[in-house]
Amino acid sequence: MTNAVPREVGLPSVAEATLAYVRGQIPGxxxxxEAQLAGRVADDVxxxxxxxTRDREELPPGYLTRPxxxxxxxxxxxxxxxxxAQSAMDLGRAWPAPMQRPLRILDVGAGPLVAxxxxxxxxxxxxxxxxxxVDGARKALDDGAAVLRSVAPAAKVAVHAGNLREGxxxxxAVRGRFDLVVVANVLNEWHAGGGGRGAARWVTNxxxxxxxxxxxxxxxxxxxxxxxHVLIEVREALALAGLGRAVAPCSGAQTCPLxxxxxxxxxxxxxxxxxxxxxxxxxxxxxxxxxxxxxxxVVATRPPVAPWRIVGGAMRxxxxxxxxxxxxxxxxxxxxxxxxxxxxxxxxWRGDPVELPAQPKxxxxxxxxxxxxxxxxKASDNRPPAPYPSPSRRTRRS
Length: 398
Description:
Helix 7 links the parallel strand 4 (about 180-185) and strand 5. The longest helix is centred in the first third of the chain and has 26 residues, at about 65-90. The protein is globular and about 60 Å long. The relative contact order is 0.11. It is built from ten helices and 15 strands. The strands form two sheets. Strands 1, 2, 3, 4, 5, 6, 7 and 8 form an eight-stranded mixed β-sheet that branches. Helix 1 runs antiparallel to helix 3 and helix 2 packs across helix 3 (about 65-90). It is of the alpha/beta class and about 400 residues long.
C-alpha cells in the first residue's frame, strides 16, 4: 500500500503566505498597503542586513526572540531564504525523486522554517513531508510552522527549541535518519566552539548520525568570505571522514582549490523574481536585491552534477575574455577571443554548470593558477592563450 500524495490546488506561495501571516502579527498591519508595511519594518530589515553581512560579530544572541525583529526577518529574509534554498537545490540537483513513503527533512537552526518552506513549495505536490525543525527561538519556529500549514497543509512538522550544541537536547529532539538535512544560515553565526573547525566537526557528527543512505546534506550561507570558507572547512572535514562527497558546487576536485586561500572565496549568483513586498522594502532601505547571492554545499553519495562549474565573473583583457571555472583538476581560467567566445563566457550566471570543449592545460605563467583552458581563442590565431594576468581587486571573489 502506498501513501497517496495530496495535491491541494490553489495553495499560496511562500511569499504570499508569509505576507498574510506577518500582517496578522503586526498591530494595524492589515490596513496598510505594501509600501506602508515596508515602512514599518524597514529599519529592522536594514539593521538585520548589516548584522548579517558587515557586522556579524555584533549580531545579538536571541535576536529572533524580539517580536518586531522577528516579523521583519520573516517578511523579508523568509522569502529570500526560501528562494535561495530552492536555487541551491536546483544547482545541486538535490531534489528527491518521488517515493512511496514520507520524505523526512531535518532543518537545523531552522528559525521560522525558511529553508523548509522553500523545499515545501516545490515538493508539496509530489511528496508527503515529515519535518523536524530545531532552533533556539521557539517563537520563530512557531511562526514558521504556521506559514508551513498554509503552504503545505498535509506536511507534518515537529518543532524543538533548545541549544543545538547541547547533547541532551539534541538527542531528545533529533532521532533517526533523514532524507534531506538542511543547514541554512547557521554556521556564519558560529562564534564559539572552534569557529570554522568547530562548525565542521559539528556538521560531520550530524551527517554521521542522521543522514539516511542515499540522502543529501544541503548547506547554505551568505556570499561572504566567512560563509564560503566555513563551508570549505565542512567539505574537507566530510571528505576526510569519508562521509559522502561534495557534488555541488564542486565538480570532482579531491581538495577544494581555495582550501588554503584566505583571499578568495566561492559563491553563486542566480536570478529570481522579487515578490512585490520585497521590492517595496528594498525601495525603503535603498537596496536592490535583484539576484540571489549565496554560498552553498551539497553533499551526497552520487557523482558530481557537472564536470565544470562557473565560479567567477566575466573578465576582459583587451580582445580576450576570461572566466574562472572549477572542475576535477581544480580551478582553471577559461579564455576566448571576444569574436569567437561561447555565449556562456559572458552571459551565464555565477554557479551555472558548463561543459568545456577542450581539456585544461597547465598555466604557462604559473603565477597563480594551475590550469588554463581554451574555449574559443580566435581561429586565425594559432598562438597559445596569453598568460593570465594577476586578477584585479574587482575579480578577487572566485
